[in-house]
Amino acid sequence: MELILKKTVETLGEEGDIVKVKPGYARNYLIPKKMAVLANKANLSQLEQEKASIEARREKQRQEAESLSLKIAGAVITIKHRVGEEDKLFGSVTAADISEKLAEMNIQIDKKNILLSEPLKTLGEFNVPVKVGYQMTSDITVQVAALETE
Questions:
Q1: Is the pTM above the cut of 0.85?
Q2: Which end of the chain has fewer CB atoms surrounding its CB within 10 Å, N or C?
């Protein structure tokens, strides 16, 4: 089934793209959520008329993603956590913890966009990819240090 995307869908494509999907996915998810419309003559002609504005929005989103990428590229975040024996953490450092630290640096990133394969459970320095836009990622360095107790 051919559809025109009204919004960028991470697994399919960007706004304005014409994609082929299975009918169930279209009927049950994309069309009811107004993320896509059928690729018929009327919708295709409307797409042609809106192409310039769609391209302008895409370019704006790309520029925002690139500026965010430059802002966080090479950022170093230090998170202090309580440790037990053999430098194992009590608990773990999660994407939410990293998101909070970035917010303290005036960088707003949703925890869903921090691509942490599993929570950090040991001390050390880790490279963590962060999704900044459609198919764009940037790496930050997360240092997990021991919390000094007095």
A1: no
A2: C
